[in-house]
Amino acid sequence: MQYTRESVSGRAIRYVDWLVPGILGMNMMFSCLFGVGYVIVRYRKNGFLKRLNATPLKAFEFIAAQVTSRLMLILCITVAVYIGTDLLVGFYMSGSYLALILVAIFGATSMISLGLLIAARVTSEEFAGGLLNLFSWPMMFLSGVWFSLEGSPAWLQHAAAILPLTQLLEGARAVMLDGAGVLQILPQLLALAGMTILFTAVGALGFKWKSD
Fold it and tell me: To which H or E segment does residue 143 belong?
């Protein structure tokens, strides 16, 4: 096999271009987990969920409503952070905004569902904070927010792949840095959709309305 040297042209990807999707994803993660988890625990603690339990409302319907409302709020916040960051550092955006919005929607939905799952039975805000940190810190370090895991052991890469933030960042970077379309990020979207279904189903089955 013979190799030939060729010149490659194109725009250089700066570290900040690679880092921005990680920062945006991390911001979404904290907003989804803590913004949802604490609210559900507070609802249960002050008896609001107990009153809802007296209505025909089912746990799955309540969780679905919470996911939808929080999703709209988090997307608005993320769009504002995205615009502000672009004005400050002018990062690289190669793909379509439609694909990026799809990644954001699927990623935020999965992490909101995870936050609801964590808070499904917790009655103490202190305990909820510990559980949320237990899930958020591994994602912050193993999902590729600050550095790539390409040179890490294979088992660590496989373990990181089951984290929703990992799938979100892989899809977002593929769109923003490589110009990937919807078909190219379909594996990440399917993985995030599967996580959402799993988290929502388990959370609904184990949901606790009362604090006692």
Answer: none
Task: State pTM to two decimals.
Answer: 0.85
Single-letter amino acid, residue 181: G
Number of Cβ within a 10 Å radius of residue 139: 24
**Smallest Cα–Cα separation from 139: which of 1, 19, 30?**
30
112: left (phi over 0), alpha (psi -120 to 50) or beta: alpha
Residue with tokens 């499904």: 120
Contact 200, 60 (CB under 8 A): yes
CB 121 within 8 A of CB 42: no
Q: Quick: pLDDT tens for 165-204.
A: 999 999 999 999 888 889 999 999 999 999 999 998 888 8
Separation between Cα atoms, residue 165 and residue 119, nearest integer Å: 19
